[in-house]
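for the recovery benchmark. tokens below, seq after
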């Protein structure tokens, strides 16, 4: 059993929760920190990345465990359940081997939300793409000074271990970047030209080693339990609070029913954009904006055919700008399980055009206290629909995809340009968004402290208040550094 009290408890062990722990340790060396994770530790490396497991059969087994353990409610979704969800139903668990699917009130063919949620030590840090592109000026928080935000981005890059060109020397990728630059670089600032996709990865003789939260936590994992401890397979049922002050959390071991209380001087809720508002709701912390403004970007998927020798290995990136709202990733792929047409003889190249969607108050997460999920918390459903502007933007993104495919070589024969359901990017955000003032439109302040509380913080993509197209992990990690530094500064001098 853990100590009955700690200085800081962090609910969730993903990249932003781990960033809080690492930054608090940097600025408050004597702090006692406890991290709570609902799922199991699945790798010997605490929070290691699953893509480093080269045995694909073993990796598939671990991916099931990454969803909260090998429990039958989280096996692959069945055809019957899929049809039930399309008809508007949902059950108590979203953690599915093939993803999260929740039908909306209206036409599910248009508004189906599809996504995934992790529950294991490292959270989505065990499965993320490791892309760490920087957000454009238009995507950044307007009420955080530019120099402060830029400094936080630099800290976040260090925490995640960003490599700006992880496959340097890929001549085919460099040649493609030059061709793409001729088409897209005009009028861009030097930092937003076509470039290699920055990745949280380290090159090695056998390829890239992808960074999970093992890299973010660093030496913390070797500390004694008295100063840093991860409670795996432990569920937080409630943040206990009195008069705007969090006093601790109620916890329960997975598979058990008896809860225990952990007293804490500061509480950080760092689950994800769906489960962070869920825990606040279950704790009776229900500001008007909680779960509202659910936002994500569409992904327009395009397959292209490239004729090149040697084949491309690196990932290229066309950044979003104020004038170009799309973030385009271009990467080598394989079609081993997909039948190709006879005239498809070149290298298959995958593409994702990340397309922003409008922020809408009515797009939201809804909680049902009558239907507990596997954690014993109010179950979740999604209400979401696109705006007319979203639909027009999608058509523009499709045209961009075709244009890029023709620069690569040609659109791959036999493959259509498709729009994936919203949520497919796994980048949903906005549900605990930060705001400049406490006016009912946000959940937390610019340092991610929940309005009306002196020691309760939220973390993750859910705090991002802006429209984005860029992979948000670096962004949300940067925002986490503000809250962590505020906690350390306040508590060290208290």
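predicted aa per position
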């Amino acid at each position: 059993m853990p100590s009955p009290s700690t200085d800081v408890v962090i609910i969730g062990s993903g990249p932003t929760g781990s960033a809080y722990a690492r930054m608090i340790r940097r600025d408050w060396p004597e702090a006692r920190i406890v991290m709570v994770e609902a799922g199991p530790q699945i790798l010997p490396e605490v929070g290691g990345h699953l893509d480093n497991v080269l045995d694909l059969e073993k990796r598939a087994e671990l991916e099931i465990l990454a969803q909260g353990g090998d429990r039958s409610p989280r096996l692959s979704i069945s055809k019957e359940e899929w049809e039930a969800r399309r008809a508007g139903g949902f059950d108590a668990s979203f953690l599915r081997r093939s993803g999260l699917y929740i039908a909306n009130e209206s036409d599910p063919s248009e508004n189906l939300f599809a996504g995934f949620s992790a529950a294991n030590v490292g959270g989505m840090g065990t499965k993320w793409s490791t892309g760490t592109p920087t957000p454009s000026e238009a995507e950044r928080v307007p009420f955080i000074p530019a120099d402060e935000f830029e400094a936080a981005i630099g800290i976040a890059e260090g925490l995640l271990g960003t490599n700006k060109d992880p496959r340097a020397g890929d001549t085919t990728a460099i040649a493609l970047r030059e061709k793409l630059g001729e088409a897209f670089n005009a009028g861009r600032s030097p930092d937003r030209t076509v470039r290699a996709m920055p990745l949280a990865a380290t090159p090695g003789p056998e390829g890239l080693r992808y960074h999970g939260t093992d890299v973010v936590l660093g030496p913390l994992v070797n500390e004694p339990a008295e100063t840093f401890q991860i409670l795996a397979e432990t569920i937080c049922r409630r943040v206990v609070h009195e008069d705007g002050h969090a006093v601790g959390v109620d916890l329960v071991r997975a598979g058990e029913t008896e809860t225990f209380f952990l007293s804490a001087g500061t509480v950080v809720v760092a689950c994800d954009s769906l489960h962070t508002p869920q825990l606040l709701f279950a704790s009776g912390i229900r500001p008007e904006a909680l779960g509202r403004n659910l936002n994500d970007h569409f992904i327009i998927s395009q397959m292209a055919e490239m004729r090149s020798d040697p084949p491309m290995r690196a990932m290229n990136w066309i950044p979003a700008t104020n004038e170009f709202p799309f973030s385009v990733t271009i990467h080598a792929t394989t079609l081993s399980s997909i039948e190709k047409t006879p005239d498809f003889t070149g290298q298959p190249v995958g593409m994702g055009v990340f397309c922003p969607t409008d922020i809408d108050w009515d797009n939201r997460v809804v909680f049902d206290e009558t239907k507990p999920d596997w954690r014993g918390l109010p179950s979740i459903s999604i209400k979401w629909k696109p705006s007319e502007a979203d639909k027009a933007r999608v058509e523009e993104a499709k045209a961009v995809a075709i244009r890029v495919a023709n620069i690569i070589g040609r659109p791959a024969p036999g493959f259509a340009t498709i729009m994936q359901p919203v949520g497919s990017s796994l980048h949903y955000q906005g549900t605990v968004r930060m705001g400049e003032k406490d006016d009912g439109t946000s959940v937390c302040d610019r340092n991610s402290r929940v309005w009306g509380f002196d020691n309760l913080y939220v973390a993750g993509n859910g705090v991002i208040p802006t429209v984005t197209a860029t992979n948000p992990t670096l962004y949300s990690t940067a925002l986490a550094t503000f809250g962590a530094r505020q906690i350390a500064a306040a508590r060290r001098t208290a």
